[in-house]
Each structure stands twice: as structure tokens, then as C-alpha cells.
Amino acid sequence: MNKSLYSSLQLDVLKELANIGGGNAATAISQLVGKFVNMNVPTIDILDYNEIYEKIMAEDTEVVAVSMSVMGMESGNFLFVTTPKNAEILVRMMMPEGVQLSDELEYSAISELVNIVVTSYLNALSRMLDLSLISSVPALTVDMFGAILSYAYMESEQYDDQVMIIKNEFTYDGAKVESSLYFIPKPGVLDSLFKQIGV
To answer: Are 135 and 122 in contact (CB under 8 A)?
Structure first.
């Protein structure tokens, strides 16, 4: 199933939810680091599993990924993906000037960033639909994109073929840093969400 099966109104609702969540995430990150950070959502796609490698990123691309599971009525798995270079910029954004970075500190910083982003999206959805959504702690992995995405599917055989991709664009210190947030839903979750929203 892909986005062609959804109406432009449904995709617009998803983008508006993502924009609200992204705005809240940017505010929370700015307050945490004491620097102005902007985040917007230029695109949202709903693609089949195989389309991701054709349209988004090759399987053999090395990435930094952070996964978080969502529990509740609308369950699934979030996967935040960015390149090692962009991950380093995001870590620097999160840390005070002059701090000497270690692997442990870098992993902690990027995991906290993803925790804020995912929680902001879930809070926006929870407020709109009066749902109770709980997320797991973030888990960070550095590997090939194909291996990470495949593992996200294999974690549970109940996950659907469709994936919602939210393109995140952070603006910090005059530079734009791109990343993607993948939501791998259990079967029927996206249709259930649209039904509850009323579109």
C-alpha cells in the first residue's frame, strides 16, 4: 500500500500533525540547549517497503539510526535515520561549546534529540485524538540502512508493508541538517488514525 491510496486531504492532515510536532520539538530542543533551533517538515510520504530503497536511500548507505517503539492503540515503530556527518552536526547542536565528545556522549545526545522529536509527534497526536500513547526508550545503531530497516520489520511479524516517512529539516547556525523519521505501523494503524481524525 502506498500514498496513492490516500487522499491529498489525508496527507495534508498528516503533514499538519507533523508540523505541529516538529514545532514543539524545535521549541523543546532550543530550551534544552539554549540555542535557536528550527525544525520543519518539507515532505511526507507513505511508501511500500521496497520503494524506500528506490526513492529515499540505497540499502548500502551507512547511517546512524535511533529506534523507538510505540505502545497503545496505534502501535508501531519509529526509526530516525541520518548520515554520520549530519549526526555529528546534530550532536554539536545539542552540546555546549568546548565539550570534548566521547562515543557515549554522542550516542546519548542524539538519542535524547530523537526522544524529544518522537515524543513531540506523539503528544500532538494524543491531544488531537485523546489517545494514550507510550514510547520505549531510544536505541541507537550505526549500520547499513538496509540492515537497520530490515531489522525494524523483523522485530515483529505484525508490522505492515507501508511506511510513513517524515522528512525532518533542522536549521541550526545557518545550516540545514536533513534527517528522516520512519513510522512502521502495525497493520491497519494508518487507516484507523484517519478514521478517528475523520478524513
So the answer is: yes
Which residue is listed with cell 489517545? 131
Cell numbers standing for residue 119: 515524543
- As beta bridge partners, residue 165 has 45, 182
pTM: 0.87
Q: Could you tell me where the DSSP H helices lie in 34-102?
A: 49-55, 84-94
pLDDT digits (tens, 9 = 90+) for 92-132: 888 877 788 788 888 999 999 999 999 988 888 888 777 77
Beta 44-48 vs 139-144: how paired, if at all?
unpaired
Catalogue the long-range contacts made by 122-127 (C-beta closer than 8 Å, 24 or more residues apart): 122/21, 122/70, 123/21, 123/24, 124/17, 124/20, 124/21, 124/24, 125/17, 125/21, 125/74, 125/193
Number of H helices, E strands in the chain: 6, 8
Give me the residues paired with residue 183 across strands: 78, 164
State the burial class of residue 128 (Cβ atoms within 10 Å of its Cβ: 0-12, 13-18, 19+): middle
What's the CA gap between 101 and 68, in Å, rounded? Answer: 24
Rounded distance, CA 31 to CA 120, Å? 14
Block residue for cell numbers 507510550: 134
Average pLDDT along the chain = 84
